[in-house]
Every structure is written in C-alpha cells, then in structure tokens.
Hints:
Layout: E1 10-13, H1 19-30, E2 34-39, H2 43-56, E3 61-65, H3 73-85, E4 90-93, H4 108-135, E5 139-143, H5 156-175, E6 181-187, H6 199-207, H7 217-229, E7 238-241
The structure holds NADP nicotinamide-adenine-dinucleotide phosphate (NAP).
NADP nicotinamide-adenine-dinucleotide phosphate (NAP) binds next to helix 1.
Amino acid sequence: MQDNPLTDKVALITGGARRIGREIACRLHAQGMRVMIHYRSSREDADAVLTELNALRSDSAASVRADLTDAAAPDQIVLETVHTFGRLDALINNASTFYPTPIKDATEQQWEDLITTNLKAPFFLSQAAASLLDEYHGCIVNIVDIYGHRPLESHPIYCTAKAGLIMLTRALARDLAPTVRVNAVAPGAILWPENDADEVTRQRIIARTPLKRMGTPAEIAGAVEFLIRDASFSSGQVITVDGGRCVVP
Ligand SMILES: NC(=O)c1ccc[n+]([C@@H]2O[C@H](COP(=O)([O-])OP(=O)(O)OC[C@H]3O[C@@H](n4cnc5c(N)ncnc54)[C@H](OP(=O)(O)O)[C@@H]3O)[C@@H](O)[C@H]2O)c1
C-alpha cells in the first residue's frame, strides 16, 4: 500500500452512498484513499458504507448530506471535505437524476431538476474545489452517459444535461490545466433505474450490446480509478464503458 500513489489522498464522491457511487467510493478506499461520501436522502446507506470502511481503516471515510438543487450545496460539501480531511485530490461528480421527459408534457421544474443535478451542480462543485485541486495537483472525474453522445428516446432533458457535462469536461480540462486533469466515464447499461421494470426494453438493450450483457458498477469504478491514478497525461477525455453499444446503430 505504501507504494500506491493514492495512499491517504482524498476523494469526494457525490451520490456515493448507493449503487455506482458506492462502488466507486469503496474501490478508491481500497486503493488507500480517504473518501468523503456525499448523499441526499440515503442516510442509512451512507452510514453503512462508513461503518464498513472505517472498520478497515479508522477515520478514513466520512459523509456529508446535501441536496444539490440547493445553491449553497457545492461550497458546503467542499468545505466539509477540507474541514474533515484537510485536502482534496479527486472530485467525482456521480450524483444524478434520470427520468423521461417527453417533449409534449415536460415541465420547467423537470428541466431545473435534471439540468441542476447533472450539469449545474458538477460545474459549481468544480468551481468550489478548483483551488484545492490546484494545490494538490488533483483531478475531476465526471460520470456522464453514452446518451450524452446519442439521444435516448423521450429523455431530451437528461441527454442534454449529460451532453453539457461532456463539454464541461473538455472546457474545464482546458481552463484548469496544467495542474488539474478533468476526464469523464460514460457508462452504458450498468444498473437499471429502480422504478423501471420494463423487461422487454431491458432485453432489447442487452441484445443491441455487442458484449451481450450489462456492465457492472465495478467496471465503472475501475475506469474511475484508472483516470485518477494512471491517466497522468490524459485530460478532457471520455472513457466509454458500454460493452460496445456505441459501435452499433
Ligand atoms: N445506472 C446506469 O446503468 C447508468 C448508465 C449510464 C450512466 N449512469 C450514470 O452513472 C452515475 C451513477 O448512476 P446510478 O444509477 O448509480 O445513479 P442513481 O442511483 O440514479 O443516483 C445516484 C445518487 O444521486 C443522488 N442524487 C440524486 N438527486 C440528487 C440531489 N438533488 N441532490 C443530491 N444528490 C442527489 C442520489 O442520492 P441519495 O440516494 O442520497 O438521495 C442517488 O443515490 C450517474 O451519473 C448516472 O447518470 C448510470
């Protein structure tokens, strides 16, 4: 562990209590990082991860609660992180909302919610973290989506937000250089949305995926780890982890 360049460095993972965010937090912690797990409503899940990780190494994990639609949240989350751990080396913008917004009945409230959680909050978190990341030569990893490159039917606002986050990745890679690298991971189908039980759609998506299966949260976490630890000469890039979905129509 002593030779690992991530030992004792600090990662902030938004939406890190459950699902993919939890896997990212545990993976980075296993590499020796200390982790700040941001959550909104999943307090029990956040507490469970903290218990698990702090049992492995004491005081190596903490949590912060905030609703990213609150304009004060980005500063609060970053301040809490530096107050707890004294530094910040990696910001992982993972938190997201995802639901359909067909053009015929989408609302302004849905626009605000989807654009804020998927795009505005990552921007202001990056702004709040920029000087710390600069000081520690850190990096940002944005979790985007293959649907930021190609539209998913009936999800125009979500797709627009993720497309914006891909451009934000490139724009900040330019503006935060040369000290801070900014990259992204674009998952394909990894975990189904919890409120979506459409088995026919699920099977159709897998059938259209050249590798004929869903991905795993561990495969996303592995790409995040690579970008933080190994991709020292990469910035402004998006790693697609989609089982080849993007190479077929
Ligand atoms: N799942 C997939 O197959 C898939 C595919 C493509 C891309 N992605 C991307 O991968 C990332 C993780 O996916 P996922 O499916 O694990 O995400 P998820 O379960 O849909 O959401 C992750 C977390 O975001 C947090 N969140 C949502 N709205 C918030 C708000 N207003 N304020 C603060 N936190 C908020 C929630 O925290 P609480 O639970 O604490 O409220 C939630 O647990 C996302 O960026 C997603 O777009 C996922």
